[in-house]
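Please go through this protein, sequence plus C-alpha cells, and consider how the sequence yields the C-alpha cells. Keep your notes short.
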Amino acid sequence: MLLLNASGCLDALTAPEVAGELDAFVTKTVTPEPREGNPPRRIAETESGMLNAIGLANPGRDAFLERMLPRLRELGRPLWVSVGGFAAGEYAETCAALADVTIEINLSCPNVDEAPESAAEIVAACRAATSLPLYAKLSPHAWDMGETVRAIEAAGADGISLVNTLRGSALDGGLRPLLTRGSGGYSGPALRPVALAAVMAARRVTSLPIVGMGGVSTGRDALELIACGATHVALGTVLFADPDAPGRIRRELEEAARAAGFEHAEQASGAALEPVVNAAN
C-alpha cells in the first residue's frame, strides 16, 4: 500500500519534510496555460470539513516542466503529476510531455468548467499520447460509479482515484455565500462515507488499483478504505491542520489493523465487500 497526498493539499517545495513521509507525492493539477484561479475568498471552514474554490491555479505546463518538476525530482520521492485541461487534446498534450512519472488525470474538479468530452474519451486520448501509468480521478457525483469505472478501464486507465470533492456551499451571518464563486469543493470528515461507497462500487467491477481518499484523518479511516477495496490511500484536508499526519496515520493504520484481527493492513483488503455480496445473493 502507498500513502500519498491528495492533489493540491500539500506544497512539497515548502514542506519537504511532510512530503518525505509519503510514499509518493502528487502535484497540484497542471493545465496547459497558466491560471490565476478564482478570485478570493476561495477557502472556507465548515463544521465538518472545508470548502475550496481555488480554480486550478497553477503556473502552466511550460513553467511546471521547466522550473517545478526538476525541483520536485530532488525530493527523492516517486512523483504523480495531476493533469487537467478543458478539452481531451489539452490533457493528451500534457501527458505526452511528461516522462518518468505516474499521471493522475483530473476528471472531476468542481470549481472550473469541464471538458466537453466524456471521461472515457479523455482517458483514451491520454492513453494514445503516453505509455506512462494513468490513473483517472473521478467525482463522487457519478450516478453509476460502476459503469463509469468500466468505461474508464476500457479506455486504457491503469488505475482509479476516488473521490474528488463534492460540490458544496456555506453562508455567512448575512446569508451570503462564504466563497466568492458561491460554491466549491467540499472535503473533510463528512466526505468519508461517500468515499467508502464509491470505492466499494468501483472494486466490485474492476481489479485495477484504486487510490482511496476522502475524509481520512486517522489510521482507522485509512483501514476502512482498504477494507472497501482501496489499494492505496491519499490524505487531503487533514494535511492543512496536521503536518505530522502521514507518520501518525501510518502508525495508527497498523494498530487499527491488529485491533480488527489482521496482522497487516493489506490483509484487510476487500473485507467489507464479502458481507455485502452475500447479502445480495
Residues 73 and 192 are 31 Å apart (CA to CA).
